[in-house]
Design brief:
two-stranded antiparallel ribbon, 5 helices, 6 strands, globular
Length: about 130
């Protein structure tokens, strides 16, 4: 999301855009435009971050490929590309380093969603003991 888009959204909605979004053990940081698990960064590329940020907006709710193309890629037609699937695979590979690849789910009717509890999971705190 560009700075001008963020400002426009802030003015239109009169709400603050959150700096963090949490999905289970994953924390997305808008300032750093990256995700982390505990204190280890994923090293997300900009489009990968935007993809996860969008999915973390409504955890558990499927987002169609068409919606992702419009909202993340800003493409309002159906291109003959598998860019969404490629980016999802890259994000899953980065999540897999932390054993979290299964949280990015392909919906049977199409699209993707995050399967994680909103906010930090109890698992994070159990491991610290």
């Amino acid at each position: 999301m560009s700075a001008s888009t963020a400002r426009r959204l802030l003015i239109e909605s009169e709400e603050m855009i959150p700096r963090f979004r949490e999905a289970g053990d994953l924390t997305l940081d808008l300032f750093h435009r990256d995700g982390r698990v505990e204190d280890r960064w994923l090293g997300l590329h900009p489009r990968e971050f935007e993809l996860l940020w969008r999915l973390a907006e409504e955890i558990g709710t499927p987002v169609t490929r068409k919606q992702l193309l419009a909202e993340v890629w800003r493409i309002h037609h159906e291109p003959e590309t598998n860019s969404v699937a490629v980016h999802v695979a890259r994000v899953r590979a980065k999540l897999d380093r932390f054993g979290l690849s299964r949280m990015l789910v392909t919906h049977p009717q199409g699209g993707y969603f995050l399967d994680a509890p909103p906010g930090p999971s109890a698992f994070r705190f159990d491991r610290a003991r």
